[in-house]
Design goal:
Strand content: 15-25%
Number of domains: 2
Number of strands: 8
Strand order of the largest sheet: 1-8-7-4-5-6
Largest sheet: 6 strands, mixed
Radius of gyration: 24 Å
Order of helices and strands: HHHHHEEEEHEHEHEEHH
Amino acid sequence: MKKYTVIITTFLILVLSSIFENYFKGIGLFCSFFAILVFNVVLNRLNRYVFTPFLSILVLTIVQAVISILLGKKIFLWGLTDIILILISCIIPYFIKKIKLNYVKGIILFLYFSLIAAYSYYIPKLYENKVAFGSFTGDKNIDLKHDYAFLGFSKGTEEKLSISDFKDKTIVLDFWNNNCGVCFEKFPKVDELRSKVTNKNVMFLAVNVFKRKSEIKNGLEMFRDEKLGYNTLFISEENAKELQVYAYPTVLVIKDNKIVYRGTIEVLDVFKNKYFDE
């Protein structure tokens, strides 16, 4: 009876992990691999080990597909690395059963959970960056063609600024526009990263991209309502495209008159020590 309880519980974990996979990718991956491990421990005790790698992939794929369809999301496709980790999750119970020393079992399980935790945390962020910006890490080395002009507002007064005004600094530019809901969701993450960076030569700025100057006033009011710890500048859509900003939000890091990073704020957070000399 206990075995069936565990199987049902494992199935429920798979369902929850499938839901998480559609909304919180890292948690979903971790839950999926953990559920597979439990699933294989049970089947291994039932002496069904030979079929478990194939059965695990089949069951997990079916559950993921059904949940995705019910949620109206794209069906999640397993990559090669995912399948390798699934197979590892299937093999672990078999080896654990053969090992007699408990501390060796503990070391193996620690390494296993460390592996899937790291994979679950980093891979979704890097993959999203690859899809949106063509690079897993966002690493760039692009010389700036011009001394691009921005508009800033200090105490309500308009002032003209340019990249050269921030020489000797590493500047993080978070490009957004008035109609970008995701941009507003990311503002707190940008502010959180800003608060973690200790290098005083690093400056964080939001950059509102406008088509018409009439949009600036509304954009300034919207940004101030967010009550963040950094300011926003404004740039024309034409100049933003010259900086290879085509979608929002886009984060650029400019250092020594070069674009050294282009991607998401999440991936920049992962590699912050590299770009900010922390």
